């Protein structure tokens, strides 16, 4: 133990050379911007409809998860660098869990009652997921995840992609999208004006990733879309304040004190409807399984990117412990992101743990001092990012899988 700590201290000192510090900070800031926007998108995905007034609290929860769990994974994972954020694969399942919980309450239930139970369910899911991942790692059972049928994994991830797209449409139109009548309302002129631009925003992100420099494509694409949005609004004679009042932006947010730790499972345990949560244990079980598979896929991808061997059991233990801390602190499921780690490496991140720490520090600064900026994010751009992520899952697990799987197995995916 002492030798390991000594080795880590020596590695930390080596990371403090001027060139490495500059590269670490720049790559961390770029990855941090994308991490922050992803957190805002996931918060908008989960806290809408009857819980829309709590979207600022949701952003606090998501960003604090990126700070706490992200820092822990970065410091203790064997991957260097590694960026960990709230998991995009399980985000739509968490959003579905919240939707089912809210729908289970009697009509007229106060929003604060709905929120406490939804918040408790999210934290409990993170805690249980963390415990299951840690146990798999401690008892060296990580190889069991590899035996899950590819077709079963594909079906779950393709379903998650569809839920991401559905959630994106809910974010930008404020429609519940539960019944057929809700979906038919998407054809109304007012709805079309909101979700069609989001689809074009998703296409823009896809084109940026294909044709621009990979290290800058995502942040440049997103900021270009934001500029186009406000430029178009200005040409239409709609000032930003009016756009916010008309529901085109994430804000306004009520005055609230940001916090890294919101231990709802402790402070609000008596106010959480545990019986209602128990009725949706299948959703939590799905989140636990998808998290293990997502972690395996991400770690395998990182091993290829960094040309190193990775102990999956160690990564399970690290991610599991980080999620236990996240759940106890009122956070969500967070896992290493191969995409953001690849982004930081493409920018020039050195082989150091500090990249993920810089991402966590950036997110923490934005949480405590930048919420007023986050309030001006256009919903169209956030929905476009969600549609892009959902479309990417569908492309990978439906279109690309068609050429890799036998017809019978592919039918299981579909």
In short:
Helices cover 71% and strands 1% of the residues. The chain has helices at 2-14, 18-46, 55-76, 91-104, 111-138, 150-173, 180-184, 189-211, 217-235, 240-245, 264-267, 274-278, 281-306, 312-328, 338-347, 354-369, 371-374, 379-402, 407-413, and strands at residues 84-86, 334-336.
What does this 3D model show about the protein?
The chain is mainly alpha-helical and 414 residues long. The protein has helices at 2-14, 18-46, 55-76, 91-104, 111-138, 150-173, 180-184, 189-211, 217-235, 240-245, 264-267, 274-278, 281-306, 312-328, 338-347, 354-369, 371-374, 379-402, 407-413; strands spanning 84-86, 334-336. The protein has 19 helices and 2 strands. It starts with a helix and ends with a helix. The mean pLDDT is 87.
Number of helices, counting only DSSP H or I runs of 4 residues or more: 19
Q: Low-confidence runs (pLDDT<50, min 5 residues)?
A: none
Please write the string of helix (H) and strand (E) elements. HHHEHHHHHHHHHHHEHHHHH
Q: Kindly report the spatial arrangement of strands forming the biggest sheet.
A: 1-2
Number of DSSP-assigned strands: 2
Q: Radius of gyration, rounded?
A: 21 Å
* Percentage of residues in helical conformation: over 70%
The coarse silhouette is: globular
* Mean pLDDT across all amino acids: 87
**Biggest sheet statistics:** 2 strands, antiparallel
**What amount of the residues lies in strands?**
under 5%
Termini distance? 49 Å
Which structural class best describes the helix and strand composition? mainly alpha
């Amino acid at each position: 133990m002492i030798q390991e700590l000594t080795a880590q201290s020596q590695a930390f000192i080596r990371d403090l050379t001027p060139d490495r510090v500059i590269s670490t900070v720049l790559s961390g800031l770029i990855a941090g911007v994308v991490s922050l926007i992803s957190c805002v998108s996931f918060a908008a995905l989960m806290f809408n409809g009857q819980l829309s007034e709590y979207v600022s609290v949701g952003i606090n929860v998501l960003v604090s998860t990126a700070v706490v769990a992200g820092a822990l994974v970065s410091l203790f994972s064997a991957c260097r660098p590694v960026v960990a954020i709230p998991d995009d694969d399980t985000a739509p399942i968490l959003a579905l869990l919240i939707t089912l919980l809210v729908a289970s309450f009697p009509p007229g239930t106060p929003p604060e009652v709905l929120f406490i139970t939804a918040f408790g369910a999210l934290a409990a899911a993170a805690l249980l997921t963390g415990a299951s991942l840690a146990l798999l790692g401690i008892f060296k059972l990580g190889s069991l995840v590899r035996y899950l049928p590819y077709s079963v994994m594909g079906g779950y991830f393709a379903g998650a992609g569809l839920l991401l797209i559905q959630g994106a449409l809910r974010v930008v139109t404020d429609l519940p999208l539960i019944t057929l009548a809700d979906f038919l309302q998407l054809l109304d002129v007012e709805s079309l004006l909101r979700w069609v631009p989001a689809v074009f925003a998703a296409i823009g992100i896809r084109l940026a990733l294909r044709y621009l420099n990979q290290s800058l494509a995502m942040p440049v694409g997103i900021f270009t879309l934001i500029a186009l949005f406000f430029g178009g609004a200005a040409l239409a004679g709609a000032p930003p304040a009016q756009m916010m009042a008309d529901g085109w932006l994430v804000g306004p947010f009520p005055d609230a004190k940001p916090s890294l730790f919101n231990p709802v499972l402790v402070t609000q345990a008596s106010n959480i409807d545990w019986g209602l949560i128990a009725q949706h244990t299948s959703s939590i079980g799905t989140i636990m399984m998808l998290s293990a598979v997502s972690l395996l896929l991400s770690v395998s991808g990182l091993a290829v990117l960094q040309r190193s061997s990775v102990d999956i059991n160690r990564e399970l233990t690290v991610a599991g412990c980080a999620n236990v801390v996240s759940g106890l602190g009122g956070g969500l499921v967070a896992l290493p992101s191969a995409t953001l780690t690849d982004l930081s490496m493409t920018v020039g991140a050195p082989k150091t743990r500090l990249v993920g720490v810089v991402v966590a520090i950036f997110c923490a600064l934005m949480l405590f001092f930048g919420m007023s900026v986050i309030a001006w994010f256009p919903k169209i751009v956030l929905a476009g990012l969600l549609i892009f992520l959902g479309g990417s899952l569908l492309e990978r697990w439906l279109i690309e899988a068609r050429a890799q799987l036998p017809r019978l197995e592919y039918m299981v995916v579909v």
